[in-house]
Amino acid sequence: MKSTQSPDLNSLRIFLEVARTESFSSAAHRLHLPPSTVSRRLLELETVLGTAVLLRSTRRVSLTEAGRQLLDSISGALETVERGIANFRPVDGAVRGRLRVATSFSFGRVFLPSILARYAELCPEVQVDVQTTHQNIDLIGESVDVALRMGQPADSDMIYRKIGIVEQRLYAAPAFCSGLALSGPEDLRDVALVAHRTRMRRELVHWTLSNGTRHFTVEQPPAIVVDDPILVEGLLSQGLGIGLLSDVLAADGVATGQLVPVLPGWSGPPVPLYYLYHQQLGDLPKVAEFLKATRETLRTKSARPDAETITT
What domain of life does the UniProt record list for this protein's source (predicted)? Predict the structure, then answer.
């Protein structure tokens, strides 16, 4: 009598192997199972199907008509399942799959090329999908594996680790500075400022500067407000004002002579660098290797290395 149960996937896998090898012992060896388990699971399968699928003798095993129909029906589907599982547990140990990374434009420009170059050495068969935005996105809702950010994260149910610190200073184009006489941040009062929106408060620039012994807060309307530090860098290079930039983002402009430090004895508050990931993803090889590549890269870049793992 046919059972109302559905056939077990493992039993179907055992049946497929017996049908291929025409031998209980050979199938058991290939599946790393005791022969008694193979025999028992096939009897359970026949009970569920309500018909015999194998003809057993002392010398060989052959398929019944129902067994041949079952083999034709399931062999392709089971092979597809096996290939899919192999992508997660490859027998050769290689890490494969797709890694989704979210980061800001500025972090991406400064750090991501070096991180991805190192990651390509560690996991050459992983496809990387990078999403760049200046907004903090929902990692779970957007199916993102890892986020790389500047500033304090606000995500809940995430693991985040501080992996570095970047210093901030005032920068401008040499031509813009040529007619200025600046002895301290108080002298910025009548100077055109280019501001990143997150460094503002109530429509005013809000820059807290320090020279090690004294603090001063610059608060005044900016000439230009933008949403991303990369644009601040470009506008400063064109001589449109003075802005607060991270040293690593300003480094290329300084090297080419397009930017110079302004009031070099004063600096803004250090900006922490973080990576974030869901606690259930940290053990995935593709994620673990990316975190490793990120840590290694930050040690060699000009960001000051740091380490602090926190569960929010």
Answer: Bacteria
